[in-house]
Prior knowledge:
This protein is of the alpha/beta class. The chain has one domain (4-254): Acetylglutamate kinase-like (Carbamate kinase, 3-Layer(aba) Sandwich). Helix content is 39%, strand content 15%. It contains eight helices and eight strands. The chain has helices spanning 12-15, 24-39, 51-59, 67-92, 111-125, 148-158, 213-225, 240-245, and strands at residues 4-10, 42-48, 97-100, 129-132, 163-168, 188-189, 230-234, 252-254. An eight-stranded mixed sheet has the order 3-4-2-1-5-7-8-6, sandwiched between helices. Helix 2 packs across helix 4 and helix 6 (148-158) runs parallel beside helix 7 (213-225). The longest helix is centred in the first third of the chain and has 26 residues, at 67-92.
Amino acid sequence: MYKERIVIKVGTNVMTNKNNRIVRPVLRNLVKQIAELYERDIICLLVSSGSVIAGREVLGKSKIEDTTQRRQVYSAIGQPRMMRLYYNIFHDYGMKCAQVLPTKRDFSPGVHRQNMINCCEGLLAEGVIPIANEDDAVSVTMSMFSDNDELASLIAQLINADKLIILTDIDGLYTGHPDAENSDLIQNVNPHDDLNKFIKDSNKTEGEGRGGMGSKLDFAQKAAANNIPTYIVNGKTDNVIIDIINGKPVGTKVSL
């Protein structure tokens, strides 16, 4: 029996450089932290973006004009590549991982939801780290999540996680532009706070991902309202996940 179960979401902007190439040391640092937590009887479920970028690295520029179909193709090519990267790194730390590719219907009441619960609970019971990503190869239009922030929030609620950690490429929510001298990091947020005045274009992390700061806060507040403390932190900071578990004040915490 594990002392805690944590959902960690890593976005595309965390794992890529300015040339939109996957940075393997970032993934290794992430897995290293998950392995350290595992040794402390804390089990993690990872929600990872990156399949579209990984597919584009393999295929290069696509001739497909339709953006949805192009994303499907990139994802179908990139998803096994992402899993190979993760598999090799987890193996280096003596751990096992597994792929979970849900669609939105898997969270609707009924047999699909129960199947998701059974899969995640079974993997966690075996000490295997589930790696979830939206199945972009088949998940389009009404069956799409708005982004992986939504998926992470839903999974955290599904497995009754003790914490949700959203890794992004800035330190958290700021009162203004993160680079402005008079802009301060907001360390604590209530799930019922109105944060619209703080969510500006400058706080978005668009890149190749679909979710900006507004999305992260929206789904963080939904998870926190269900008694799951949620953290929005800079995933490129060394040992930021360990810092959270050790109680250090990093990033923006959303909680009741």
